[in-house]
Structures are given as C-alpha cells and as structure tokens.
C-alpha cells in the first residue's frame, strides 16, 4: 500500500504545484549534462553517429549513478527524509500540470495576437513557428498536448509502475526521462543532429513503444467519458496511427484528431529544413482554441484511468 500512497501523492503534488520557478528540477540538470557532453563529443569524435551512442550511454551512466548516490545519502540522513526525497524526485517526472500551464499560454497568447500565440508555441515545439497561421498554431498546440500525454504523463507513470514492481521506481523513471530529454534536444532527423541524435531518437522510440499503445487506448476511453467522438477516435487510431515519422507519436495524435474530428500532421519546417509528414484525421472541422482545452481534458482523464489501472494491477499482484 505504501507504493500506492506514494504514487497518488506524486500525482496530487503535480496537479497542485506543477513546476514552480526556482525549484531544483532534475530535467534542467539533465539538459545541462547533455549540452556539456554534446560539446565534448562534437569536439573529439569525428564520427558523430558513433558519438551519439557514447552520448546516450555516458549520460545514462552519470544520471543513474547520481540517483543512487542521492537515494543512499538520503537514507543515511533519515528514512523519513529518504521518503520525502523519493516522492519529490518522482513528482518531478510527471508533467501534466506543467504541460497544461504552458499550453494554456498559447491559448491566451492567441487571444492577444497571432504573434503571441506563435511565441508561446515556439517554447513547446521544435518546428519553426514564425509564419504559422492561427489554425496551424492551434494544431501545433493540440499535437504537442497529445504527444506529451504519452511522453510527459503516461510513459513516466508506466516506468514508475514497472520500477515499483522491481524495487527501483526512480531509476526507471530517470532513465526514461533522460532518454526523452536527449530525444527532445538532439533526436532530430535534420542537421546538425541527424547523426549524433540517432541513438537517442531510437532509444526514445523503444521506450515509448508500449506506453504509446496502452496510453492511446486509455485516451479513446477518455474521449468516451468526456462525451467526445470516441468512435471516430478509434476509427482514426486504427487507420492513421502509422501516419507519422515517429513509430509512436501517430497513436495519441490519431486519437485526438478523431475525437475532435480535425486533421493533424502535414508539412513543417525544422531548422530551415522542410519536413513532409503525412496527415492524420479528416478535415471535418476547423481547429479552434477550445479544442486545445478538450485535448488537455483528455490528458487528465487518461492520467486518472492509467493510474487506476496500475493500482488494480498492483493490488492483484501483491494482495
């Protein structure tokens, strides 16, 4: 029962606190570590493809060793302090409230001007937002919310759950978060990251494979509970789940596109390179700002359903 209480505490903390400015956050330190190692690898590795594997392996080693030292140190201080540190570290791995806050800024920005909407979207996506239309900004916000329902919520919960079952929830969570952070920083299919980011991108694909598929099923169920078009979400999921360059991102995007009866995907610009992507969903409706809010609701309900699923599985195994 202690693990269940910890998990619920972590989720409630995320809902209440989000990511307060100024608080120490492991992802920030992971980002600094990745930047430092990337500079070293670019300097000393002629073959950046091989260097990318070194970047992945060394950063994983450093992060997992650091986690072990922190946990052992906190236990030496006091078991209660160890529990507090455990809850805090797990809490930093869930990004539902943070995503909610940042995506809402896009909505508020659009109410002010298209330029403000583009600016806030640029903080969330890797594509060039400078010339996007209002409709494209809305689609971008919906897409990133759908993708991060898996990357920022379901996958972290999945690896926390697996970690609880084997006794290492923070190690599993931080290994996932590091790989996901690597992918967001260097895992692009265009230069200058094509070679150095290959290993990280593939590792992220592997780690998100199961969460994307399980999570998408819960997203369909969430669409039903929210009285959205869940039948169409299932239809588009089955039809268009592979209409994405990522083997995983097409799943949550297809669910949301179907539930909202809009079309996502298409051609985007990354680092001055045009990247053509297939479309997902049908052009039944024009994207509107309220649909961003609907996608946020899908995220929260999916989180609740997945947490309930884990608790049931955990109780069946241990009781």
UniProtKB/TrEMBL annotation:
Stretches that traverse the bilayer: 48-71, 77-99, 157-176, 206-226, 298-317
Gene Ontology BP term (one): cobalamin biosynthetic process
Pfam families registered for this protein in UniProt: CobD_Cbib
UniProt key word Membrane: yes
Function: Converts cobyric acid to cobinamide by the addition of aminopropanol on the F carboxylic group.
Organism classification: Bacteria, Bacillati, Bacillota, Clostridia, Lachnospirales
Superkingdom of origin organism: Bacteria
Membrane topology value: Multi-pass membrane protein
Record-given protein name: Cobalamin biosynthesis protein CobD
Species this chain originates from: Natranaerovirga pectinivora
GO function terms (MF aspect): ABC-type vitamin B12 transporter activity; threonine-phosphate decarboxylase activity
């Amino acid at each position: 029962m202690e693990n269940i209480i910890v998990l619920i505490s972590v989720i409630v903390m995320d809902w209440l606190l989000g990511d307060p400015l100024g608080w120490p956050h492991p992802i920030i330190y992971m980002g600094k570590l990745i930047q430092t190692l990337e500079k070293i690898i670019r300097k000393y590795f002629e073959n950046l493809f091989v260097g990318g594997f070194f970047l992945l392996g060394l950063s994983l080693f450093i992060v997992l060793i650091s986690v072990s030292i922190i946990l052992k140190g906190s236990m030496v201080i006091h078991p209660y302090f160890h529990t507090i540190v455990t809850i805090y570290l797990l809490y930093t791995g869930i990004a539902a409230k943070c995503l909610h806050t940042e995506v809402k800024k896009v909505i508020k920005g659009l109410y002010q001007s298209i330029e403000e909407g583009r600016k806030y979207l640029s903080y969330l996506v890797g594509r060039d937002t400078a010339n996007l239309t209002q409709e494209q900004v809305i689609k971008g916000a919906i897409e990133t919310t759908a993708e991060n329902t898996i990357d920022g919520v379901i996958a972290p919960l999945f690896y926390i759950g697996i970690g609880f079952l084997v006794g290492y929830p923070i190690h599993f969570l931080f290994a996932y978060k590091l790989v996901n952070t690597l992918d967001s920083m260097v895992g692009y299919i265009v230069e200058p990251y094509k070679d150095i980011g290959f290993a990280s991108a593939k590792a992220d694909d592997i780690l998100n494979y199961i969460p994307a598929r399980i999570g998408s099923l819960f997203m369909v169920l969430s669409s039903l509970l929210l009285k959205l078009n869940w039948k169409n979400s299932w239809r588009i999921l089955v039809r268009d789940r592979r209409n994405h360059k990522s083997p995983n991102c097409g799943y949550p995007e297809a669910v949301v596109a179907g539930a909202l009866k809009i079309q996502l995907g298409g051609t985007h610009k990354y680092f001055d390179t045009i990247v053509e992507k297939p479309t997902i969903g049908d052009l039944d409706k024009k994207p509107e700002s309220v649909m961003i809010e609907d996608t946020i609701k899908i995220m929260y309900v999916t989180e609740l359903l997945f947490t309930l699923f884990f608790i049931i599985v955990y109780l069946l195994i241990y009781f």
